Amino acid sequence: MSEALLQVEALHKRFPVAGRRGAMLHAVDEVSLVVDPGESVGLVGESGCGKSTLVRLLARLLDPSDGRIVFAGQELGEIRAGRFARTPQRASIQMVFQDPTDSLNPRFSAREAIAEPLRLLTGMSAAEIERRVDEVALQVGLPLALLPRYAHQLSGGQKARVGIARALAVKPRLLILDEPTAALDVSVQAVVLQLLAELRRDLGLSYLFVSHDLNVVRLLTDRVAVMYLGKIVETGPSEAVFRAPRHPYTQALVSAIPGQGPRIKLTGEVSSPIDPPAHVCRFHGRCPQGEDRCAREAPPLRRLGSREVACHFAA
Amino acid sequence: MNAETWKHIRHVLGENPVTLLAVTLFMLFVLMAVFGPALVPYDPLASNSAVALQPPSAAHWFGTDPLGRDIFSRTVVATRLDLGIAVSAVAASFLIGMPLGLAAGFFGGWWDRIITRLSDTIMAFPLFVLAMGIVAALGNTVGNIVLATAIINLPFYVRVARAEANVRRSAGWIEAARLSGNGDARILAVHLFPNALPPAMVQVSLNMGWAILNAAGLSFIGLGVRPPTPEWGILVAEGAQFIVSGEWWVSFFPGAVLMLAVFSFNLLGDALRDIFDPRRRT
Amino acid sequence: MTQPPLLEVRDFSLEFRTRGGTVRALEGIDLQLHKGEIVGLVGESGSGKSVLSYALLGISDRAARITGGSAVFGGMDLLTARESQLADLRGREISMIFQSPRTALNPIRRVGQQLQDVLRRHAAAPGPDLGKSLKERAVQALRDVAIADPERRLAAYPFEMSGGMCQRVMIALALACRPSLLIADEPTTGLDVTTQAAVMDLITGLARERHMATLFITHDLALAADYCDRIVVMHAGHAVECAPTKSLFAAPQHPYTARLMSSTPGERSTIASLEPVPGNLPDLRRDDLPACRFAERCERASKRCRSERPRLDGTAAHVVACWHPLREAAALKEPAHV
């Protein structure tokens, strides 16, 4: 049995709430996740579900409050985020950001942006770095003539490619993609998605693909995890989860995709992520299937064959 | 600077005639400061009672002062001193204030609290009061005037840098910089600082104008630079008592040049910002 | 259509004078909107859809120059109307909602005050609310957009409200005076899928209830399909196809429309089945733009496409601007929309 590339165990992240002493916002609550080498795992959920926080924990930009992050057998959670930039593992986990404009320093040219991680994280000489930048630019379909340009001189699709090239330059093993095509036009999105699929095949990468666009996640991932208010409520093979969602929230999410037919309307207020009561299901109050039991006993994430579901009523 | 930067600068200058005016005046003052003393017709310190208090003429463009010294020469030579004081003070403010502000905005927490309190405390002091305090404690020298001016201007840079750092610290490219292996210090120096430059440049220019006025004002009341050293404030002071008796030129010309200097620096701020801000490049 | 259109745009062309050249943002746009109709204006960024809507309201960028055509609304040509006439129209007869609700609301004025500003400006607007006080009408406007506890919300500032609620307030502001035409410029872009559905339900519900014509601008073809009666597809400043939704999806005629559909991930898509649109949007500053601006990206292009601009043509319902549409045979006939 091959070792999992990334193993997340009972990860927690709590933020103190400004202005309220002692109150804590549970952004990520007891999340466990596994990514195998070469696997592409999707992470879906709506704004406020904690997926952005989760990926920043995994990319080691934030420190967890509790729990373990084990990457290629090494415990990464112990190293403080501030110091992680200078450890050898920094190059193994890289990230592609949502807004290509926002993720490029306006004062750096494309070449400088791609070269920077090489300069800081590898011992390559200047000539080797230049060759590597050219190599990875071609890999992502970025014409070499565009490399001297600045961010504001590049189109959305070109900026996206620069972001991908920068992440791939140091040959990571795990690539975290945080809504990489959300800010792109549909036709550009298609090209970038095909590029990402091709790169994974050619380079044997693992992906952690975060998106709120379920159709896109379905295309690019083998497995998917659905998050709600900091907790994982369902996992399973992507196709199966979208075709036959088991958790009521996933069902509502899938039904809201345009063209999916009758929409399950969610009523009621979203529960607060601040000091949530531990014994109440987070989805209770909005759930079309809620019962008293849901307010007394929070459902654990149960394994059902190849799936995991956190709901009392899932069969 | 590469070809594209020059093209951009030429474009910025061409777009707005006021900008061109400001830059031209600025260059003029710089030239005056550098080459003035070598080119003036008369020795600024040479007195000649025979020609005392002469109105402007072909021989003396700005007239002469009560000691017969040529006002034109004195005014031009004063440029070096005034500009020198202003540049030193502003440079000191910039070099100390920017890093403090960046740290305050980027790290937040205790850094922010302490630095902001410091900045607020300084802002509470009017310049002249602070200058007099420093002079009383440390002595009446030009160096101490520079120190006082530098301290007074510190909060401007702290605020500008803090605002920029605060806004940008959650930007995607800061996170990307961390992923690329940048530690905090490097992020501040290499990533944040250049992006905080455009608004800081405007501040620098405005400060220069203000600093010149300060230096002149302090000299006017007798702090810092003392006669017979030519300095715009002193020149104006020397001429102040003659305005009523009709010898207007003694104060007027130095005052006008002073005003023009401050004016051009203020206009320059906008031009600098246009040049430095990469988003305004086509 | 038996009634005359509420808004009729004919041969509308607009350009921008910029430092880098003249951008021919819109060319020969033909568009019609009937009372009570929900029309989707679909196109990618740079297609000119927002430019078109801003021009209709007279709020284009300063560098914009109208170079031809007309946009007749209620007997008046919006493109040649005086600013005072347009100001009377905005908010009262034609309203617009924007993508980012927080930037559309004044951060230092209470919600109730902003609503009353609009109501006061168009005080004489006829309708069932005449006679009620401004405050009552403001409360009603909030209630219409399903904001709970509207009396209390009147005193709130925008920063005290969530993004979703700000959006509802923006919609309330737009609809307060019961306009007959609403332009919605990407109101749900960036929203979660469930919030998007809720907002679209709200807007289209109100539109149907009030028999209000709606021009819904989006880049999301699937979303337009779910909510619009008719769809107009735009590409690089041209209106290239216009058809009732069912007809458009059953048989898209313009190659661009077909490619848009095939590049959008759907239920049955695979990575391999996605067919992106080849090439890039042409630079609209060029002097040598082909007459049909899709010609350089189209595998069906011929010499005629480069030299002669195709006009919208076809049956009354489904029209396409293409010399070589995908079904050269007659397009489907659709019953007239009521």
Largest sheet of chain A: 8 strands, mixed
Q: Find the CATH superfamily of chain A.
A: P-loop containing nucleotide triphosphate hydrolases
Secondary-structure element order of chain A, as H and E? EEEHEEHEHHHEHEHEEHHHEE
- Strand-pairing-aware structural class of chain A: alpha/beta
Kindly report the spatial arrangement of strands forming the biggest sheet of chain A. Answer: 6-7-8-3-9-10-12-11
Query: What oligomerization state is this entry in?
Result: heterotrimer
Q: How is the topology of this model organized?
A:
The complex is a heterotrimer of chains A (about 325), B (about 280) and C (about 350).
Chain A: E1 6-16, E2 24-35, E3 40-44, H1 51-58, E4 66-71, E5 74-75, H2 81-84, E6 93-96, H3 110-121, H4 126-139, H5 156-169, E7 174-178, H6 186-203, E8 206-210, H7 214-220, E9 223-228, E10 231-237, H8 238-243, H9 248-255, H10 292-296, E11 302-304, E12 307-309
Parallel strand pairs in A: 3-8, 3-9, 6-7, 7-8
Antiparallel strand pairs in A: 1-2, 1-4, 4-5, 9-10, 10-12, 11-12
Chain B: H1 3-15, H2 17-39, H3 71-107, H4 109-123, H5 127-138, H6 142-168, H7 172-179, H8 184-220, H9 232-240, H10 249-276
Helix pairs in contact in B: 1-2, 2-3, 2-10, 3-4, 3-6, 3-8, 4-6, 5-6, 6-8, 8-9, 8-10, 9-10
Chain C: E1 7-18, E2 21-33, E3 38-42, H1 49-57, E4 64-73, E5 76-77, H2 83-89, E6 94-97, H3 101-104, H4 111-121, H5 134-144, H6 150-153, H7 163-175, E7 181-185, H8 193-210, E8 213-218, H9 221-227, E9 230-235, E10 238-244, H10 245-250, H11 255-263, H12 303-307, E11 313-314, E12 319-320
Parallel strand pairs in C: 3-8, 3-9, 6-7, 7-8
Antiparallel strand pairs in C: 1-2, 1-4, 4-5, 9-10, 10-12, 11-12
Helix pairs in contact in C: 4-5
